[in-house]
Amino acid sequence: MRPLTLHVSALTETEYESYTKFLKDICDAEEVEPRKYEDGTYYERVRVSARDARAWMRRRYARVGAASIDTILHFFAPDMRAGDTLSGGQHLAALRVVVHADAGRDIHRGLAFIQASPVLDEHTASQGALQ
User: Fold this and answer.
1) Which has the closest alpha carbon to 111: 80, 68, 77?
2) CA Rg, the chain, in Å?
3) Is the Cβ–Cβ distance between 4 and 109 less than 8 Å?
4) Tens digit of pLDDT for each residue in 52-66?
5) Is there a contact between 23 and 92 (Cβ–Cβ < 8 Å)?
């Protein structure tokens, strides 16, 4: 089965702006210095705790619903154990699926490979500023 991961070059301009900002929001700023990796390898080096990603997505995309967020994250971390992590590319793929779910689409693995249209409304943007 095809791995669920995305390179930043597979993102649209809007996805890139949104998803990379979101990824940086939940990563430890000291983990990797993004400016050192302008070629996109920063996002390959980043590791995000599956549980941290879950908590962040549940807050950011509350209207998607906790059960749907869990369904999406189980594509990447089936057992959601304490030590499970997502690579930056997996997190980008998960965000893409969440954005599709937020738009009302039925959740399935294939959505990770279909470009989405993330929208930042005032509520979402203000929520992100608080994270």
Assistant:
1) 68
2) 14
3) yes
4) 999 999 999 999 999
5) yes
- The DSSP code sequence of 38-88 is TTTHHHHH-EEEHHHHHHHHHHHTGGG-HHHHHHHHHTT-TT--TT-EEEH
**Which of the 8 DSSP states describes residue 107?**
P
pTM: 0.83
Place of tokens 């000291």: 30
Angle of helix 50-60 versus helix 88-102 axis, rounded to 10: 30
Secondary element (H or E) of residue 100: helix 88-102
* b/e per residue 37-58 (b: at least 16 CB within 10 A): eeeeebbeebebbbbebbebbb
